[in-house]
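Look at one record.

>
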Amino acid sequence: MFDDLDDLYQQVILDHSRSPRNYGPLPGAERHAQGKNPLCGDQVTVHLKMDGDRIEDIRFEGTGCAIAKASASVMTTTLKGRTRREAEELFQNFQNLIKNGGSGDLIGKLGVFAGVHKYPSRIKCAILCWHAVMAALRNEGSMVTTE
């Protein structure tokens, strides 16, 4: 049973890595932030269009490993239409999931990353885009790093 679930999670991650959703520039974006993982070379730029406190649209650009790309892809599909507060709560739940494991029931599609906690070197790959989007939501316009 668990092997089937692991296979499903792996398939979802590979699908989002090979065909990332919301990838590319976002014309008219008001907020941007870049993230870099110096350890493995992952780089991401997150672009946001806001409607008040709600994320109207979100896209990302960058290069990186399968986990980094898939995480950014699933993150953007999850955050589109959410409020800043909802995004912050999802960030905290996601961070807890990938650091400590668990079922991921509270965070929907993001639960496919539950197995990342077994690979500590991959945690930074999965969380990089989240640090970037948090910086963009705070309108810091800065470079964030996993170090």
Observations:
- The longest helix spans residues 120-137.
- The beta strands are 31-37, 42-51, 54-63, 143-145.
- The mean pLDDT is 90.
